[in-house]
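The following record pairs a protein chain with its ligand, S-adenosylmethionine.
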Amino acid sequence: MSVIHYFSKDPDKRAKFIFNLIAPLYSKFDKSLQKGFKESVKKLDDKVVIAGKSVLDIGTGTGAWGAAINKLGPSHVTGIDFSEKMIQTARKKHPEINYKHIDAENLSEFPDNTFDIVTASFVLHGVKENKRRKLLEEMKRVSKKYVVLHDFMGKTPFTVKILEFLERSDYKHFKKNFCNELKSFFTSAEKIPARYGSGLYIAEK
Ligand SMILES: C[S@@+](CC[C@H](N)C(=O)[O-])C[C@H]1O[C@@H](n2cnc3c(N)ncnc32)[C@H](O)[C@@H]1O
């Protein structure tokens, strides 16, 4: 994929270009990501018991969030991503998870209510509200009950702000409105702050 895709008006082309480009670098932070995710998965497990449950991780990237959840003993974790390089890296880093190279906007290969928990870590802030809605619709459809978003909450660290600017993400609007977006679409939605400007948004069908 050429550098021209960074300037594309199509946000998916731009995102695939960026994530294919940064996949090798992203995997270097795997250990620190896992460390940061530890507290969040613990908080998740306190609310929604993971042991024995089936989990789908949307935009799994290099697999760090899926791998952190996998430590809590789910029946299985499936990770999907539309960046080929991210999935290739994930397969090497965390072979304990099943992976599929597909777009989360179309999960038609999974029937309704396939997974106990459908999750996404640091994916939904990256897209505009209309796209977010499409992703949430598919996540809700394939989930039996819970949709769990691990994403920005509270104060965003300065270095992350620069990365989000380069990614042209929607993180500011996301932080302000996301819980209300969820409440308009799910029976309930709860916010649980964690560390490093992140937190959990737990929605129930
Ligand atoms: C910031 S990374 C987060 C990776 C991982 N979840 C984590 O927390 O470390 C966002 C990931 O979402 C993926 N992604 C974004 N939109 C997607 C879509 N529509 N379908 C599948 N993957 C998507 C990107 O390719 C990228 O790997």
